[in-house]
Amino acid sequence: MTQKMVQESDRFQDPIEQHPGYAETESKIAIWGHPLHAMSVAFPVALTFCAFGADALYWLSGEPFWAQAALWAAGTAFLFGLAAGATGTMELLMVPGIRIRAPAWTHFVIAVLLLSLLGANWGYRLTGYEAAVLPYGILLSGFNVIVVIATGWHGGKLVFDYRLGTSKGS
Ligand code: HEM
After folding, report:
1. What is the pLDDT of residue 26?
2. Which residue has the higher pLDDT, 17 or 149?
3. Which of 30, 70, 139, 148 is the residue whose CA sits 20 to 30 A from 128?
4. What is the distance between the terminal CA atoms of the chain, rounded to a whole angstrom?
């Protein structure tokens, strides 16, 4: 019976878990042990919310200031998002235990969708930031808020559930 159970467990071993780098998940893109990706994601997340907030205030007040603020928030959300994406991509490609896990690639796909939406939101406003707000600018900003929440939540899962990019201590 025991022999049979051992054979069964041998048959269902996950080949991914057998990979030599599977347990190697510590961040490599870090300053003094502090992962750059975790440090940089706060900026695009906050600025995505700011773009939506500025659009909503323009809708309510009609003040051109808010349309211009939305243009700047959308642009900086995109640029800081690219920087955060670069640190995340380096982590993904350089750390074997991150590279081999499917959820890390899922996060990459959601994040690239987010970055293209952030870029679209900025680019759309460049030819006339006031006219762009209603209705498509604010709709895009609102959708971006939903996608940034999904991206951040999923990134949090990588860290808190899978312990990716964390330190194992000395
Ligand atoms: C585009 C390529 C991206 C890749 C390949 C990527 C990859 C990763 C990886 C591997 C982690 C696990 C922690 C680590 O190793 O540092 C992570 C965490 C995270 N990511 Fe990304 N990421 C990307 C873009 C983004 C973007 C654009 C955002 C949001 C604006 C984002 C939000 C997060 C968050 C919030 C965490 C959790 C950080 C923490 O709690 O410490 N990621 N990402």
Report:
1. 95
2. 149
3. 148
4. 42
Q: Which protein residue's CA is at the shortest distance from atom 1 of ligand 1?
A: 85
Task: Quickly state the pLDDT bin for 168 (edges 50, 70, 90).
Answer: confident
158 lines ligand 1 (CB under 6 A): yes
Nearest CA to ligand 1 atom 11: 155
Write out pLDDT tens, residues 68-84: 999 999 999 999 999 99
- Ordered by start, the domain boundaries in the chain are 36-160
Residue nearest to atom 14 of ligand 1 (CA): 165
In this prediction, residues 30-39 reach a mean pLDDT of 94
Give the CATH architecture of domain 36-160: Up-down Bundle (1.20)
